[in-house]
Amino acid sequence: MSQLTLLFLKLELYFPSGRVFAAYGNNYLQYGPWGPSPLPWLSSLSVDGAEKISERLSIMSGTNRTILRIDASMRRQKSVSRMLADEMVAALGVRKPGVSVINRDLAAGIGIVNSAWIEAERTSVENRAPDQRALLAQSDALVAELQAADDIVIATPIYNFSVPAALKAWIDLICRDKITFVYENDVSRGLLSNKQATVIITSGGTVAGNDIDYATGYIRHILEFIGIREITMIDVTGLSKNRRKVIADARRDITEASAKRLSGQRNLSVAE
Ligand SMILES: Cc1cc2nc3c(=O)[nH]c(=O)nc-3n(C[C@H](O)[C@H](O)[C@H](O)COP(=O)(O)O)c2cc1C
Fold this sequence. Notes:
Elements: H1 3-13, E1 20-24, E2 27-31, H2 40-43, H3 47-61, E3 65-71, H4 80-91, E4 99-105, H5 115-122, H6 130-148, E5 151-157, H7 165-174, E6 181-184, E7 187-190, E8 196-202, H8 216-225, E9 230-236, H9 239-271
Parallel strand pairs: 3-4, 3-5, 5-8, 8-9
Antiparallel strand pairs: 1-2, 6-7
Helix pairs in contact: 4-9, 5-6
Flavin mononucleotide is lined by residues 73, 75, 79-82, 157-161, 202-206, 239.
């Protein structure tokens, strides 16, 4: 299957109406709680339906692993987090057959939650007006990316002791009630499963884990909140003091983390 066809499939997956569908040969799959569907069981499902489609897409395209890479540094040049994310994604086998990457570069811009968005999100899917669906389209696309991913690589600097505003905006758009999390008897349960995350976090002087680091614990909490339990933190903090050593240590951690991920995947396929 050519790269162009793969791209076509991905584009269909993020169809802006908020409906997720894929067409390939005689196969036609559609996910969307509104409108007619040739496969009614798919149209009536929410998260499970979308996950089934991403699994199906993987089988149809011959792709068996998807990496979602999220960049939160506003710098495209000289960015340490981007440089190390390149290395992590390469170590996870981006050039190998069967591995595909979705790139979400937050420096390209991202919307923020506002009053109309909240109203649209709280309107039941069947009752949403076309403009409300349009308002939710970016959030739907970001959620679909997460659902399609096996490995998630988040590369982020610390800005003002916390995450960059664009990463916070992304978090606000992917935390969706009954889609990525649900509250049951006042207890939250994450709805994403079978995903692993690597967080590459850079800073000048703020050291990860100390009292004024409001980034690392927060990112971990959000990932766990949406159901991602396997999280590896690559600590690249304190670059202004000991840049060479911090980067060398991070590279060693990336090698170890990617080897662990890949051996976990091999064990899984033997078990299957
Ligand atoms: C707006 C802004 C705020 C920053 N705030 C902090 C901070 O609170 N603590 C810190 O240690 N470094 C801070 N830095 C430095 C960055 O975290 C550091 O340069 C990091 O390497 C940037 O990641 P990048 O190389 O991927 O762009 C800040 C940088 C910018 C541009």
